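Lab channel / #folding
Pinned by the channel admin:
"Please post every new chain as: sequence first, then the structure tokens as a reply. Keep commentary short and put observations after the output so the thread stays searchable."

First post following the new format, from NK:
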Amino acid sequence: QVQLSESGGGSVQAGGSLRLSCAASTHGSYYYCMGWFRQAPGKERERVASITSVGATVYASSVKGRFTISKDNAKSTLYLEMNSLKPEDTAMYYCAAALLSFYCPRSVIEYNYWGQGTQVTVAS
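Reply from TO:
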């Protein structure tokens, strides 16, 4: 069982930056695929970025070049650095883990563990 807890959300002006963190309850989380998802009101949850156990990353086209996903295995913590934020980035952001090592799926249903979410609001 893996428990995930996000932090770092908040309200910023367009063009601003935020750094999200996701602390995992088990040191074995470095074996997993880890990802950040977001869900805006009335929209489906979508993958923002993911990182495999060996550090391979994937980004949604809408955030590529602006967001950076990283992890600190020693701290069992996943990060999402968000720069040049836009109003359309406003959403609840969730951390998730999939019981896969070398592949990170896009589909929400393939992730086994989820955090409670942290709200990001970007004002224009």
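NK: The chain has no helices and eleven strands.
TO: also worth noting, The first strand starts at residue 4 and ends at 7.
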